[in-house]
């Protein structure tokens, strides 16, 4: 029989084994804790920052986590922060020359977070010493007590994927991903900074870098990269801008564009700027469809927003020289930097000279046409009045004395006459064939003695005052545009039919805005807009007598003087219905008044006063309108947005030269769109369907009896696309 174990000795052995195991476990835990403590100490020592060293920052509006990671990559600094909280809160943009504490303090304004320097390490925590984690499943916030424990510190430090302590492998993977992911574009289409793909509008936006890559040298080139956009020049200097078939009819003083141009948020009545270079531009935004709520009476077809680069703290500069045929040379230069502790400045200059590329082969002499001789200067200053008040002062000057306008027959010279009894000078003087038919870059025209100039200048002052829960903005601008050209109206050298056109705008605009701080549940903007325009347009004709060879000259003068005033009150609200959907609602009230006087002087026809002065026909009228928008955004996931909207637009009425007024036009627009990013945002695709119902649409109608056109109101029109 086997012996029974001695229970006492067995228990002793069992206890000994337990003690050995516990001893080993305690030793291992102690070793891990000691190693962790040593690692943390080493990390903390490495993370200690120089509080006096300054860096250049240019951080866009993004999550706090992204901003902190960008700072870490840029400076090598390390942060301790609750990652889940930081990635759910939007940081304020930071641009300038700051220390790390100054930069983090600025980007955390109105976020509920604060930055501290603890034992030389930058830490981010809640202002009430509590962290707020975002519950992804419910889309709501819950408070979690902030614990400065060893574990929380390690998690906070290493959860930030972009921290300076990331391994080389992680950085290589992140870099590889970044190279294959489309960049996020921040736009201000709704007068607040938003990701382009999160805005429920049909928008195209191109950054300055994107413009260069696409070879877009001037706004005229945009039409080759932007869907539904068409641009063309006019004889009065303005650009004729059309989006989705909606644009401008009346191109002279007293008319209004259907697609207005905004420069740094300021409305420009004259679009002559559109014909020239895109100098020192941060981005261009093209909004399609009526933008009546936020942009007012003229944005019935859309809006084009050009945003220039802002001054920097660090001294930077660049220059380029382009040389081409026809004696072309174009110089462009930019310099930017700090001029004082709280003042930054920027200067951009462009100067182009080019001979005409349309050869004038007339034996009577005359310059070649299509030349360029312009100078474009823009300067800006940015002032940090206090921690929450910023002033931006900008001015520009543009002048072009090139003779870019020419009239050419697209067919052969006419074989009949314009009016009964008129002399056909082409046959009388054996004009022969039109040389333009065989070579579109050759003309045979008289040298018209008249002024040729395109000039624009202006100044603007912007004030941004961060008042905590909202921002107050004041946008003030004064602009003056002048265009004069001389044209050979008959497009030949066999008769003198000379025409001189003069067009001038002088405008003052003032806009006030109250913009809510970015929130997850409810955002809003309220505003008031005032517009004052004084304009003049004149056409002067100096023609040979069309009814009698050698008779008195036919001299005529047409024109108009206009004073326009407009007031707008608007508001737009965005409310989160769920964690995936938002409701957008907006209203705007506009009141327009135009004081107009058209004049005409044709002595040969007896159209003059007894004193020999022009006959003046005065008009005065006013209009008012309420426009609005209602829309809904639904996020299928974080990368795909489905949106639908109903919006109305309005364009004020106006006048033809000496005939009755035409009424305002209105539109009702329905739109359904999809914006998406696929394959880890390596592919983006946006599509929209729209339907427009117009009433009283303003259109040109030609009177064949007298050969002139006038703007009238069509009963209705529809546009689908």
State the major sheet.
16 strands, antiparallel
The total tally of domains equals 3
DSSP helix fraction: 10-25%
Strand fraction: over 45%
**CATH topology assignment of the largest domain:** Maltoporin, Chain A
Q: What is the class of the largest domain in the CATH system?
A: Mainly Beta
The helix count comes to 9
Going by CATH, the homologous superfamily of the largest domain would be: TonB-dependent receptor, beta-barrel domain
Q: What do the pLDDT scores average to?
A: 81
Strand order of the largest sheet: 17-18-19-21-22-24-25-26-27-28-29-30-31-34-35-38
- Inertia-based shape: globular
3D architecture notes:
This protein is mainly beta. It has 3 domains: 10-36; 54-179, Phage tail protein beta-alpha-beta fold, CATH 3.55.50.30; 307-720, TonB-dependent receptor, beta-barrel domain (Maltoporin, Chain A, Beta Barrel). Helices cover 14% and strands 48% of the residues. The chain contains 9 helices and 38 strands. The strands form 10 sheets. The protein has a 16-stranded antiparallel beta sheet with strand order 17-18-19-21-22-24-25-26-27-28-29-30-31-34-35-38. It is globular, with a radius of gyration of 34 Å. The relative contact order is 0.08. Mean pLDDT is 81; it is low at 1-22, 28-47 and 129-179.
